[in-house]
Amino acid sequence: MASFILKVPNLRSFTVYASSNGAPPGSGSQSGGPVILELPLDKIRRPLMRTRANDPNKVKELMDSIKEIGLQVPIDVLEVDGVYYGFSGCHRYEAHQRLGLPTIRCKVRRGTKETLRHHLR
């Protein structure tokens, strides 16, 4: 797994940890598969956030776990035209917010606007 600093226009610098489908760093594999990134919470749009309330007990348990051992499973994020959309990991996302953590580990897949429309149905 590689570790590096990513500078994106209109974002502050943050550390990124990336892996690509198990391919070793520098192998030249451009498979287009998901990568693991540490993204700022405020750069992830949550278009379905208001569809249901999170279980407060589950959020509290996750907060305790994240404080003790860190996030174990990244949330799934769709990247479309440089914008990040989160559709799963609602409890993990809220736990990070309530802990005041600025970033969250995400499994990022690239998608098209059509893919995004499919998720919004």
Structure description:
With 121 residues, the protein is α/β, with parallel strands linked by helices. The chain contains three helices and seven strands; from the N terminus they run ββββαββαβα. It has helices at 56-69, 90-99, 113-120, and strands at 2-6, 14-18, 35-40, 44-45, 75-80, 83-86, 103-110. The strands form two sheets. The protein has a five-stranded mixed sheet with strand order 3-7-5-6-4. Strands 1-2 form a two-stranded antiparallel ribbon. Strand 5 and strand 6 (83-86) form a beta hairpin. Helix 1 (56-69) crosses helix 2 (90-99). The longest helix is centred in the middle third of the chain and has 14 residues, at 56-69. It is globular and about 35 Å long. 14% of the residues are buried. Residues 19-30 have low confidence and may be disordered.
Tell me the helix content: 25-40%
Can you tell me the overall shape?
Answer: globular
Q: What's the tally of helices?
A: 3
Topology order in helix (H) and strand (E) letters: EEEEHEEHEH
Percentage of residues in strands: 25-35%
Q: What structural category arises from helix and sheet content? A: alpha/beta
What's the number of extended β-strand segments? Answer: 7
The N- and C-terminal alpha carbons lie at a distance of: 35 Å
Give a quick set of tags describing it.
about 120 residues; alpha/beta; 7 strands
List the SSEs and their pairings.
Layout: E1 2-6, E2 14-18, E3 35-40, E4 44-45, H1 56-69, E5 75-80, E6 83-86, H2 90-99, E7 103-110, H3 113-120
Parallel strand pairs: 4-6, 5-7
Antiparallel strand pairs: 1-2, 3-7, 5-6
Helix pairs in contact: 1-2
